[in-house]
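Hi C.,

You asked whether I'd gotten around to modeling the 207-residue construct. I have! Everything is below, sequence then structure, no commentary in between.
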Amino acid sequence: MIIAVDGPTASGKGTVAAGLARRYGLKRLDTGALYRAVGLAVLDAGGEPSDEGAAIAAARTLDLAAIDENRIRSSAAGLAASKVAVISAVRTVLRDAQRAFAADPKGAVLDGRDIGTVICPDADVKLFVTAALPVRTERRLRELRARGETISFEDLEAQIAERDERDMRRADSPLRQAPGAHLLDTTDLGVDDAIDAACRIVDAAGG
């Protein structure tokens, strides 16, 4: 069984995907982590994430086993990710790795922004997870402050809105709800309730 989970920043898609993977005994790939890692690699090299050559080189040399889960969760890595993600050649390089992961006959859960539309359009179940912008901002703010980062609610909200706009307007694999995807709004849901709601969708779909 392949489950595709898409949605914007801090919508809860990663939490939902992780919960689904646990519930159904499937492996999971956070595809956004790949783009964050590429963007961070460009920054570490002193480059600009929107530099196509630098971003492509970073994507081609990306070591999935060496991704630093702590560092890629910074606000800077998130902004860098949205810049490298609009580069078609970068998406092509990372697309192959994602599809190889999804090809496991045992099944998988993949979450990102183009899983149901591009990476796994034939997924058994597709979900599009969303939440109101102020709620997403507050969630992300708590995460960043727990990491010791200092940023105002207003600045972070503007960053997330900017990333939403970039993700939805990019020419290659824009963020959108895939045909046949089930909409899951987590604005008023806690973690357990969101996962339970997702599981009900999967169960109803015959998963």
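If it helps when you're writing up: Strands lie at 2-6, 27-30, 108-112, 125-130, 182-185.

Thanks,
B.
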